[in-house]
Amino acid sequence: MATYDNLRVYKAVYDLMMEVFRFGNVQRDIKFTLVEDLKKEIIKIIVLIYRANATTEKSEIIGEARENMVVVKLYIRMLCDLKQISPKRFGALSEQTESISKQLSAWQKYNSNSSSASQND
């Protein structure tokens, strides 16, 4: 089992978190509501990646991380719609979130296939 901080998905989520922490010109009220909630959601995903990596029953935890990614995507979309981030930045963040979602989905699918194969033995 790889340590969680060496996983590609962990690194991708960490990079996304760093991007969010670098948000500069955001209105004060939005910064202390929407952006703070966004940061908390991303941190939850990092914790879920750690938990999933530390257990043999990964599927449910990865599913929870995937649900949190839906919230992250929504918050980022709202920031764009509220004109707090540029469409160019929105595009870059959307690519990052899509990549993370695909990695989580593949990890969950791999885990489900592995679980099914070991139960059949």
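the 2nd protein, sequnce then structure:
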Amino acid sequence: MTKDPEFCFACGAGLTRDDIGMYRKAVNRSAEECLCLDCLAKKYNTTRAFFEEKIEMLKSRGCSLFF
């Protein structure tokens, strides 16, 4: 298994497990570098709130990326 990244590769912000899980779910399951939710939202031209809603939905469904 890959080591969890500590910082966003675009802005340098510290990453949470939710940031890492959402990046891996949306972009690359085995990513070793990740974007924070703000940078991920910019990349996909959406909002942080959109990804926060998706995270809550995935957590409620038991997605293993968010535990």
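The mean pLDDT is 93. Residues 14 and 65 are 18 Å apart (CA to CA).
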